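Retro notes (design track)

What went well: tokenization of the new backbones is finally stable.
What didn't: we kept losing track of which sequence belonged to which structure.
Fix going forward: every design gets posted as structure first, then sequence, in one message. First example under the new rule, 277 residues:
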């Protein structure tokens, strides 16, 4: 059966600079084995499948797959899939708000000045990392333990833990040992010098899910923003960069409004057509 298909670049207004995403529309009737097989075939960090919602408050339901398995939530698939759903003629139940149903429940999205943003879901796990884990992370990154300035669980579904290094330059210089990191879902963050157009540089490593390094990561940046703003390590609004180590130039736009942290980014279409599944 032929189904509508998009391949998008997320967190970039310029093609080939962000994080690619494959989106299959009208995915009802596909079994989990086929979804997983297609995600392995695309070999992107995530492939998504748009389905009718089961929750009456949602506009659509989303299933998210990496080459290594399914995720309950991920950020760049949320932005990209919402863009694709709207581009295919999706009509929201509530004006100005899109509600996505996924493994973590309902996720709200809004559109401001042409840019989609999602409301960061609540953290499932927070608090500091223990010392044995920090020693493992330092060794896996080829760093001294003292290079880790701050650390925190920032898990909003995928299982993220995060460490803050001395600077953005140190974040970009890291050459991780994937075998040593193993099944960790690890984020790095470091501050740019004052006056830089981006306040932070971010990297994400998920070797256990078949993603040695993710180009630009919405779920991680959502968790980082909740941690950094809450701890006074970042202002309420900032721009983070991610992907430079992979030749990309992703931009993540963070804004805290009341109790909600919004995570925004541009989306641009690269491929549109049909896929036979």
């Amino acid at each position: 059966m032929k189904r509508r298909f998009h391949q998008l670049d997320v967190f970039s207004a310029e093609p080939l600079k962000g994080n690619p995403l494959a989106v299959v529309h009208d995915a009802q009737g596909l079994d989990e084995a086929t979804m997983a097989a297609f995600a392995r075939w695309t070999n992107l960090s995530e492939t998504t499948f748009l389905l009718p919602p089961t929750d009456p408050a949602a506009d659509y339901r989303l299933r998210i797959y990496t080459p290594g398995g399914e995720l309950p939530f991920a950020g760049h698939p949320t932005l990209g899939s919402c863009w694709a759903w709207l581009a295919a003629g999706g009509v929201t139940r509530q004006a100005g708000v899109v509600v996505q149903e996924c493994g973590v429940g309902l996720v709200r999205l809004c559109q401001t000045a042409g840019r989609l943003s999602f409301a960061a879901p609540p953290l499932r796990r927070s608090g500091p990392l223990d010392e044995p884990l920090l020693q493992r992370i330092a060794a896996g990154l080829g760093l001294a333990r003292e290079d880790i300035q701050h650390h925190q669980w920032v898990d909003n579904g995928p299982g993220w833990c995060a460490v803050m290094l001395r600077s953005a330059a140190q974040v970009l210089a890291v050459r991780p040992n994937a075998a040593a990191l193993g099944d960790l879902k690890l984020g790095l963050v470091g501050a740019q010098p004052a006056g830089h157009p981006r306040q932070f540089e971010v990297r994400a490593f998920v070797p256990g899910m078949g993603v040695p390094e993710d180009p630009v990561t919405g779920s991680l940046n959502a968790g980082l923003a909740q941690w950094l703003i809450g701890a006074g390590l970042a202002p309420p609004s900032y721009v983070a960069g991610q992907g430079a180590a992979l030749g990309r130039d992703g931009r993540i736009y963070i804004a805290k409004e009341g109790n909600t942290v919004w995570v925004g980014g541009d989306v641009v279409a690269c491929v549109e057509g049909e896929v036979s599944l």
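Added context from the reviewer: The domain at 2-119+264-276 is CATH 3.10.310.10 (Diaminopimelate Epimerase; Chain A, domain 1).
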